[in-house]
Specification:
It contains three helices and ten strands; from the N terminus they run E-E-E-E-E-E-H-E-E-E-H-E-H. It is mainly beta. It has one domain (about 1-145): Hypothetical Protein Pfu-838710-001.
Amino acid sequence: MEIERKFLVKELPGNLDEYESKKLIQGYLSVEPVIRARREGDDYYMTYKGKGLLTREEYNLPLTEESFNHLIKKADGIVIEKTRHYLPLSGKDEGLTVELDVFSGELSGLIIAEVEFPSEEAAKAFTPLPWFGEEKTYDSAYHNSTLSREGLPK
């Protein structure tokens, strides 16, 4: 189960180079249900995601590089390219991580921060960081599967 909140970003933190980051490439083979092939650094996955906005089912299956390369050619729409920075939180949010996605390619300019939670209660109790912008958790236009079909929201 994936429980996450999603925010646009007003300004990038100035110290991003201090955090782990990975290049991600992902393409969508289906959007109902969501089936995605992803390269994350040197790892490859096929992901199934159920319906939902704050909470939805998610299953990841490992792929080989060869399988990923075969599947990504079959992706519909935009193949998404982004750099994901992993910013661990402290204080009352210890144990949580901001996944800061800086998009490139056709979605260049889009920056989204996502935080995954262990429960819906924890998600609802979370106070966004000062550099977070407008919340987009309940706006499906900001799902990567929608971005792959429709591009940047108007």
